[in-house]
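Worked problem 6 (solution included).
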Amino acid sequence: MLQDICLSFGASPVLNGAEIGVSPRERICLVGINGSGKSTLLRIAAGVIAPDRGTRFLQPTATLRYLPQEADLSGFQTVLDYVVDGLDNEADVYRARSFLHQLGLAATKSTDHLSGGELRRAGLARVLAAAPDVLLLDEPTNHLDVATIEWLENELDQLHAGIVVISHDRRLLESVARSIVWLDNGRTSRLDRSFSHFEAWRDEVFEQEARDAHKLSRLISREEDWLRYGISARRKRNVRRIAELSALKQRKRKASDSMEMHVVQGTSSLSGRIVIDAQAITKRCFQTTIVQNLSLRVVRGDRLGIVGKNGIGKTTLLKLLTGQEVPDYGTVVEGTNVIVATLDQQRAALDPTRTLAETLTGGNTEMVNVNGRVRHVISYMKEFLFRPEQARNLVGLLSGGERGRLLLATALARPSNLLVLDEPTNDLDFETLDVLQDILSDYAGTILIISHDRDFLDRITTSTLAAEGDGTWIRYAGSYSDMVSQRRSIETPVIPVRRISEISHKPTAKSKNFSFKDQHRLQNLTAEIASTQIEIEKLATTLSDSSLFFMDPGRFNEASVALANLQNHLDSLETGWLELELRRGSERRSS
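Solution. The predicted structure is:
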């Protein structure tokens, strides 16, 4: 379909001999780092833009549909007007209405003020309704909830079309793709295997490039020695060898462009053990119950994933937990010494009129403070795969993935012990996702994450808070996949407050009714747990003094025994608390 495609923006080549071809029922994923030209190549394939050089060919009888990252509904009054535009027959119009119904989008809905998820669903209905021979999809899962992504996977599996898809959703690509086209340094490489083989293939290529770069460095060293000591040879030969040396250095620079990001994690002093304590909170918005009587405790070190359908209230819940909004009923108490860093899904923290350097430094200097250490902004930018010449580029001209990387850079530079991430994976390439996962895995604080990326949630979270409808939220042990497994069980124990992974044994809910005496006991246990945790913190601080053992071994041993006893007592209190909570929850569900 595309052969020897070349395209430059100004003096910078984006594509240099790229190729891609798709046959009926082929399933191809197009991968590469942000800014490598994936979306540009797909736009050329769609006929939206023309290359500087190369050939685009589409069979005369074949139909093609293209889903861009950002749909433009201007000029269309209703969603249906947009979806049926360009359809030729009644069957396609019927399919369009059917897809809108399946996607939960009203055909008569005005195109004004559509959410990101609604725009994406409208775009999907538009391209699927035509039943094209070739389907080009640029980040089709952005802003979609997990249920819609799984629906899309099933639809794509049934299509007879040849499909080329750009996506950061590993689970989608593992389900759909059968071939990989990798775009790197303007050129494409192809592997006719499933996406699960991509990372091993990529690493093999990088290892070979590293070996080649080492050989190249040795050759350059020899040539530079000649340049210093052998310049008295014939002049024409000298000119040629100097030109060859320059070309060798250029090759080496290109080989080093795909650098690995080494991010210094922003840290600060630890928060208190209890980070967030929400008790019986309720929130309604426009006659819709977002949260109904939710009690939730987040303790230090928790990695809580928040999942649910679009519009269910995940972002509102996150704002309630972090104090940005106030519940109608109930209380939310923030723990001691909590320092928050936030990454919002709208990228609202980024000013499109500022440069990258101004965004990272605040605009007053060329230095950025990272974890209390002053660094030059260019050095910090490189760790997030930005080139030095991009420092003066406007934020508004960045790609979606580059904006995501920039926001990560600004958020992770700040000291924090609570990270609040609302759809952090949107538009990020796999290399950046891998680095983000490494950062979060090593992060010493607490993390709250909203995401529809199932693979990302499985790699990061230790518990999952899922929307069950009508304002009900249930906390499940483990990651997203663990939650799915538990939901399939006949009866899943619900532990809505403490980190489940810390509990050595799970209590079983009793059939006895939850009485007033039980309610009083539950309140007392909550207070006793809090006071016990404070005592544990005091003893832990005492024992953290490395000189105590040598200066006063008796006191050290006494504090050690007391700490062990308090921790055992805390486990007993929490087990009793959980038994009562389970009994109360069981009674609510049965009433």
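Discussion: Confidence is low (pLDDT under 50) at residues 231-237, 251-268, 490-511.
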